[in-house]
Specification:
The chain has 2 domains: 224 residues, Periplasmic binding protein-like II (D-Maltodextrin-Binding Protein, domain 2), CATH 3.40.190; 110 residues, D-Maltodextrin-Binding Protein, domain 2 (3-Layer(aba) Sandwich), CATH 3.40.190.10. The protein has 18 helices and 11 strands. Helix 12 packs across helix 17 and helix 15 packs across helix 16.
Length: 372
């Protein structure tokens, strides 16, 4: 297991000619991509990768669908949404790797904390007392996301009804704290570090985490077009293998200080390292002056964490894609098999950089042979 993110990379397998363009959104759970790039995992698996920072998920989706990105750090529901044509041109997409489980939180405006709100029940009581003239507005990162599901789950438990008591709007993750400060939002559900940024600035407080609401739900995946997986299978497998190794490195507590410093860089998350470190270590602060018992906030690796199993695919399709639960059983399970691909993960898992280097050398020697 890699314990020092600043160690020099190992000798790589022979690289492909054209760099892969891989997109990400500035969140703590983009860590495997950053580690694979900075620690040399891409290099070890013979890949040249250009990481492309995007502000929101709609841009990531469109760039993957239209071939401007070869792959991306993506919401777990995005391969299904793209395949079904939800919000975009229908384009068969898939995933062969789960990048992380859980890792989101619900942050509410500080005024609710000051009013004595501490959970869903007291929040519901406070809203009924205030009797607002219009529905409260909450931010989510996408209509097809765990964030929508988690926030609606929590609001329903508070006794609130959609459209009557609240409505949801899509806001790019890094912009959530600013919209909370401006009063445009009563709260939001987002990944780290944007909850901690709002909390540290005294703008809000954390009402619940995804670990509490839907423990170990699949959160981010590696998104590719089906055509990319078919046309460039070797690069796809190497990409998955490199990122899987990076996920293991991200899960090692001894890497967290270095990892927080890497993610804090303006090329990546561009937020204070001290705040990033909180979600990596599990020492999440729900409000100023309040602490939680250390617990896994984002899960990057462990046992079957990174496998895109049918059970995980079914959970995503059933809970995160509107009306998917109403699909005929054959169509539903066919979509799961088409999009969440454990067999691709298993093929990538068998790769190792040393064997790739030997195979590449043998292939190169055969190509360079001139018959007598």
């Amino acid at each position: 297991m890699v314990r020092n993110l600043r160690s020099s990379p190992a000798r790589p397998a022979r690289r492909q000619v054209t760099p892969l363009r891989v997109g990400f959104v500035p969140l703590c759970d983009c860590a495997p991509l950053v580690v694979a790039h900075e620690q040399g995992f891409f290099h070890r698996y013979g890949l040249q990768v250009e990481l492309v920072r995007e502000m929101g998920w709609a841009t990531v989706r469109e760039k993957v669908v239209h071939g401007q990105l070869d792959a991306a750090h993506a919401l777990a529901a995005m391969p299904f949404a793209a395949t079904l044509g939800i919000g975009t041109v229908a384009t068969p997409c898939l995933t062969g790797l789960v990048l992380n489980l859980q890792g989101n939180a619900i942050t509410l405006a500080k005024s609710f904390w000051q009013a004595g709100v501490r959970d869903a029940q007291t929040f519901g009581a406070e809203i009924r007392r205030r009797k607002p003239n219009a529905p409260l507005v909450f931010g989510i990162v996408s209509t097809v996301s765990s964030h929508r599901h988690l926030l609606e789950l929590w609001l329903r438990s508070a006794g609130l009804k959609p459209e009557t008591d609240y409505r949801l709007v899509v806001v790019p993750p890094p912009q959530m704290p600013a919209h909370l400060k401006a009063g445009h939002l009563a709260g939001f559900c987002v990944g780290e570090p944007w909850n901690s940024v709002a909390i540290e600035a005294g703008l809000g407080w954390c009402a619940a985490t995804s670990a509490e609401l839907a423990p170990e739900h699949p959160e981010k995946v590696l998104l590719v077009r089906e055509r990319f997986a078919t046309d460039r299978p070797a690069e796809h497998l190497r990409l998955i293998a490199a990122l899987r190794a990076a996920c293991a490195a991200c899960a090692d507590p001894e890497t967290h200080d270095d990892l927080a410093d890497l993610l804090a860089d303006r090329r990546y998350v561009n937020a204070p390292a001290a705040l990033i470190r909180r979600s990596l270590s599990g020492h999440f602060f729900p409000a100023q002056g309040e602490t939680m018992l250390p617990a896994p906030f984002t899960v990057f690796h462990g046992q079957t964490t990174n496998v895109p199993t049918a059970a995980r695919g079914a959970w995503v399709l059933r809970h995160l894609i509107p009306d998917a639960a109403r699909l005929p059983s054959q169509r539903f399970h066919g979509l799961v098999r088409q999009v969440f691909r454990p067999e691709i993960f298993e093929s990538a898992e068998k790769l190792n950089p040393h064997s790739l280097e030997l195979n590449d050398r043998e292939s190169e020697n055969e190509t360079n042979c001139v018959p007598a």
